[in-house]
Amino acid sequence: MAKGDKINFSTPSGFPEFLPSEKRLELYLLDTIRRVFESYGFTPIETPAVERLEVLQAKGNQGDNIIYGIVPILPPNRQAERDKAGETGSEARALKFDQTVPLAAYIARHLNELTFPFARYQMDVVFRGERAKDGRFRQFRQCDIDVVARRELSLLYDAQMPAIITEIFEAINIGDFRIRINNRKILTGFFKSLGIAENQIKTCIGIIDALEKIGENKVKQELEKEGILVDQAQKIIEFIKIDGGVDEVLGKLKHLAQNLPEAEQFILGVAELETVIRGVRNLGVAENRFCIDLAIARGLDYYTGTVYETTLLGHDALGSICSGGRYEELVGTFLGEKMPGVGISIGLTRLISRLLKAGILNTLAATPAQVMVVNMQDELMPTYLKVSQNLRQAGINVVTNFEKRPLGKQFQLADKQGIKFCVIIGSEEAAAKKSSLKDLQTGEQVEVPLENLAEEVKRRLA
Questions:
Q1: What is the mean predicted confidence (pLDDT) over 367-376?
Q2: Among 8, 37, 362, 409, which is disulfide-ready with 121 (CB 3.0 to 4.6 Å)?
């Protein structure tokens, strides 16, 4: 770049940047989610942003995600090293596109240091080369939990997931939501019973998963493009449209199983789904929070059993706000042994963006400060500092205004940042060991002895 050239300092497309009020909302949501995760015994981990490319692509784990590779950019005086810097093969590195594949590698690296079942949560940033658009980002934060076992994993872990989802979304008060539950074995078993070839089933599941995006007619067309007969495609559509209450759908599935050829996998899937539903109820999840939806498939290849998608009622355009499922082979990819797991993921960055735009959530105040100690006289600064520290020691967040300016301007500054109270101490108040406490929301101003100030502020905040 030539000297004097103008630098484009705007953020790259798809890489979000929060204002303080938005970041504070994100931190509040992270704290809420973390509390729920930890109440179920999940422990935190963090994996590197960068993994070996062969790890991210192991056995097709990449799916349709576009991976960002890491390529060193050498300074002009080191261009001779460029051949060495072009890393390939096992040395090629890339940014992680999700948390689940890195979890599998993490477990393989620390197998002998972990206790199983291993229940972890992770709230890291991931990177995908998606086309950036409203609600879709190339860098975003995911909040994940997974439980991984060696050889066998109880279906009650699957049942815990809807309970956790319910607690999180009720705690952040986003309105009515529904957790839609299915089992991939049911879909796979049904396709087999129709005579669909094994090598076509995964593709069919991916097409079914796009039903809400592309519609019923397009799903039929896509199935027929894959060689599925017209009558088979129609039966698939009729099957995934089975609805009703949870017990009603289970009853219809059991009845259907009696007439299906080669129904072993279908029957196993129904039995697993019934076990999970029973566990969800025993965990106290309200009936209006979950349902069985046979169209829920989850497009990723590694899901093998229970699958979930959570939607906000009345806001279909938001899409899924939390999803996940059970997998049998993913973690064992790196170890050559069976390590079943189940997990869910909340795409928090996308969720915040969509909920703010829909007016379901609001940003927080730009500052966590609850009180501003205003500057009436520079010579009283020792008093202002002492009062500020006393308030902080009482658990109150305080900004001390070090610059003397007109009182009205200081009130405006506090109000603009969302600070609720201003403490006013002039020479007379200081001599009398008193203060004036002004509520910027109501305009009320009261006189308070300095020794009672912290107690009075806490009472009014409560």
A1: 97
A2: 37
